[in-house]
Amino acid sequence: xxxxxxxxxxxxxxxxxxxxxxxxxxxxxxxxxxxxxxxxxxxxxxxxxxxxxxxxxxxxxxxxxxxxxxxxxxxxxxxxxxxxxxxxxxxxxxxxxxxxxxxxxxxxxxxxxxxxxxxxxxxxxxxxxxxxxxxxxxxxxxxxxxxxxxxxxxxxxxxxxxxxxxxxxxxxxxxxxxxxxxxxxxxxxxxx
Amino acid sequence: xxxxxxxxxxxxxxxxxxxxxxxxxxxxxxxxxxxxxxxxxxxxxxxxxxxxxxxxxxxxxxxxxxxxxxxxxxxxxxxxxxxxxxxxxxxxxxxxxxxxxxxxxxxxxxxxxxxxxxxxxxxxxxxxxxxxxxxxxxxxxxxxxxxxxxxxxxxxxxxxxxxxxxxxxxxxxxxxxxxxxxxxxxxxxxxxxxxxxxxxxxxxxxxxxxxxxxxxxxxxxxxxxxxxxxxxxxxxxxxxxxxxxxxxxxxxxxxxxxxxxxxxxxxxxxxxxxxxxxxxxxxxxxxxxxxxxxxxxxxxxxxxxxxxxxxxxxxxxxxxxxxxxxxxxxxxxxxxxxxxxxxxxxxxx
Lengths: 192, 349
Hints:
By secondary structure, chain A is an alpha+beta fold. Chain A folds into two domains: 49-160, Alpha-Beta Plaits (2-Layer Sandwich), CATH 3.30.70; 162-192, no CATH class. Chain A has helices spanning 5-9, 12-24, 66-70, 105-109, 135-145, 149-157; strands at 49-51, 76-82, 88-96, 115-117, 132-133. In chain A, strands 2-3-5 form a three-stranded antiparallel β-sheet. Chain A has a two-stranded antiparallel ribbon with strand order 1-4. Chain B has 349 residues and is mainly alpha-helical. Chain B has one domain (84-346). Chain B is globular, with a radius of gyration of 21 Å. The mean pLDDT of chain B is 85.
């Protein structure tokens, strides 16, 4: 608006501002009273990490190291060993939560849906030590934050790995434990 | 209430000097306590009102709806460490908040809160108010000078220039009221307003009221004229180096100053504790309500206006501040005096 003499004399712009603030006085505040009223966590929220367990209660992780390779902040450390029958054993699986940026790439990278991000976000503490997640703590988190059907539902809805729906061509070398792997002799799937 | 008080009051008066002294001390105690409680809750309401104007909630944690927040703040300020800067000029540093606070509280002595209740019913009440409000500026200037900090120094300088500029406008804006009522006694000013057809001087003195409102904001260093304590430029301005109870004295002084300016506006322009005659004639039951209620309602309106302006307007630039003071308010106030004086001589007022 042009600053005419009338608007200057009668402070029309200041009065408009006053009207706005007075109207806002009766608008419901947007403040969330957080510690008293907890916000509803959206499904698929990226909170504290957990290592998924299968139906037998065994860790799903095979120690391939893809999550650690993908991790942009390089906070996942995996140490594996050779066990009996030349089996690969995940000796240590550690996440430095204080370095984690909760991007969720580890979840996307995992071919087995073995790592997951829970809805839990209230884990502040007074020292750094509790934020260094070991394998035991991460497996514990699974029992704590994905009890019962919840873990399965999360697997279905939010972090079903790409490999689940992957169809390779015949004879392609693939992880034997990927469920969708085509057995030799069946017809090749995938895109035409 | 007045009938109930009449007997002990007349008894005290009959005791002579001692009785008068007790009466005055009791009045001072009442005014002091009530004012400080008002100041405490003025801070609470300021935080609440501004918070809601900004879609926030304001204090809510201490007590129900955060109602004990002022006391929590007060206790915190009492027990805080009192830090004196090494480079400060100690005696002046100690004296400045006292001057500021005392000059604010002294003004309370001449304010008539309702009919007949005034600690010191002096004939130059309005002049006394103006004198005390400018004395408070000494506290600000001294604190700015003695702190030994550039922020305080700049705040003090700004305050000095601002108060000098706006005091003229404020004094001139009240001259119209003086002309119309023919008195400097605040009780007399209210009485003459009650006798006036409009019941308040705001109608004939609208120019004076406008100038007084602007000068009122500048005198109490409130937004949009809070250059002496501009947070974003000067940390806290003149009281940057103060902590603990010395800071609390500046804080209390500022809010007491707001209350006094609101009361002055109420007394000089809105008819103090009275309602306009045409309102009480139309609705006679309003005569039952004690005058203090109307007085406080008018004062609360001005206090709310302080908060409202603070939530709405940004700070003026320094040259804008000076331009408004010297090029706008003082000419308007002078014109108001000329018009009011002319009308008075012609006998139209």
